[in-house]
Amino acid sequence: MDLKSLTVQVIELAKNVGSFIREERETFSYDVVEIKGLNDLVSYVDKTSEKKIVEQLAILFPDAGFIVEENTRSEKRDYNWIVDPLDGTTNFIHGIPCYAISIALELNGEVILGVVYEVSRDECFYAFRSGGAFLNDKQIHVSNCKQLSDSLIATGFPIYNFSRLDPFVNTLTHLMKHTHGIRRIGAAAADLCYLACGRVDAFFEYNLNPWDVAAGALIVQEAGGTISDFNKGTNWLFGKEIMGTNSYIKEEFQNVIQTNFAKI
């Protein structure tokens, strides 16, 4: 498989659908918002975008299955496209910048291709296995921040699963006191890409789905960063928790997360 060529085609697809999302934002009305669950919003923009993406991916690689957020298609195979058509839906609905298309390809649990197109800033992050990570065709790398006290951290706040709120708040408290600060951007795919290009130095969040993290995590890894679950293991794609760092503060940051979220 020519992953480089396939990545180029996925980038073109993401940008085309991104243009649709950008146009819809200009006239978007909150009246068309649907409620999937507590604080879990969706609109025709998410659903139409996913349909467009799935239709084209099925043409690009017919043998692959799909793991997608809005369930327009669901069929797992050895290869699977993992798609979030609009990560940061709440931002989009409220007219707040930072919402992204996230498309990844995985083979038996290993992500081998990832594209994240941040629509509002026209920024396209992408990577394929062993090919490096890029932002708008320029190679990117994680930061050189060497200690937690000098770092900027990204995270996402829980919106409906509050079962781990106490350890989450304890972690925030520690990081507020021992870092340059914490940022909550509202789109996990973008958080990971900002880690990959050095805008932030670490990221963590729980209750995420594969489509939230698959593409961004590969981009971090190909940019020289580290990805793990909260127990420093590898169950981050389907395990609903993830943390990422640059290579320098990995141990220090992972110890903070593991200590606060230790399994009882």
What is the compact description of this entry?
The chain is an alpha+beta fold and 264 residues long. The chain has 7 helices and 14 strands.
Commentary on this structure:
With 264 residues, this protein is an alpha+beta fold. The chain has two domains: 137 residues, Fructose-1,6-Bisphosphatase, Chain A, domain 1; 113 residues, D-Maltodextrin-Binding Protein, domain 2, CATH 3.40.190.80. The chain is 36% helix and 26% strand. The chain has seven helices and 14 strands. It has a seven-stranded mixed β-sheet, with helices on both faces. Helix 1 runs antiparallel to helix 2 and helix 5 runs parallel beside helix 6. The radius of gyration is 17 Å and the shape is globular. The protein starts with a helix and ends with a helix. The model has no long low-confidence stretch (mean pLDDT 94).
